[in-house]
Design goal:
This protein is an alpha+beta fold and about 210 residues long. The protein contains seven helices and eight strands, in the order ββαααααββαββαββ.
């Protein structure tokens, strides 16, 4: 990991980038339960199976098939595989299946950043990205010369945009980079994000990267 500086990129503290605790290195992201997606898929499957079962019992009881059953049977008998509606329906079903597979294979909960833990008996902890952004923004505003600051934290990168109220922008940016480097180490994250700092002066609005 590195932290942007006026002269380019400078290496961040080793303690923040490569924790020497084995359990911290092995920490993984939190997995979402996907309750909404699972409930929706189960609801659709149960509704379709229930309708087909009811229709089959209804027909076996000596009644005529309902109009929707007859219409579906006629459509399946008349339409060929190269029909536009058949291709479109197949594409939609495939897209929904791929979406469900993607949900099953990805952890989700992107807003949670795993924290490094030690001797906790298997207990895991995480920091919300908005909380991490708030902590970095507070550290940025505490830097002399910084009048305003905005921070967006992702899983691998944190973007900091600051407005210099007074002082040399280059010196303010160097102090800001150092201050954020220390604060980033205090977050206690397993994989601290790389911090990109951009500053601009308040009067001219010129940006230094």
């Amino acid at each position: 990991m590195s932290l942007a500086s006026p002269a380019g990129t400078a290496p961040a503290p080793a303690a923040a980038d490569a924790p020497d605790r084995p359990d911290a290195v092995r920490a993984r992201r939190f997995w979402s339960a996907r309750r909404n997606a699972a409930a929706l898929a189960a609801l659709v499957a149960v509704a379709a199976a229930g309708a087909l079962l009811y229709e089959e019992i209804y027909i076996r009881s000596g009644n005529r098939a309902h109009a929707w059953r007859t219409w579906i049977s006629d459509q399946l008998a008349d339409r060929h595989l190269d029909d536009a509606w058949v291709i479109a329906g197949s594409a939609v079903v495939c897209a929904l299946g791929l979406w469900l597979l993607l949900l099953a294979a990805t952890p989700g909960l992107r807003r949670l950043l795993p924290l490094a833990t030690e001797d906790t008996g298997g207990l895991r902890a995480a920091l919300d990205r908005r909380a991490a952004a708030a902590m970095l923004r507070r550290a940025a505003l505490e830097t002399p010369g910084v009048r305003e600051a905005g921070v967006k934290v992702g899983r691998r990168r944190a973007r900091v945009r600051a407005v210099v109220g007074f002082g040399d922008p280059g010196e303010v940016k160097a102090a800001l980079a150092e201050h954020l480097s220390v604060e980033r180490g205090r977050l206690g994250l397993v994989r601290p994000p790389m911090v990109n700092v951009k500053v601009r002066t308040q009067s001219k609005g010129r940006r230094r990267s």
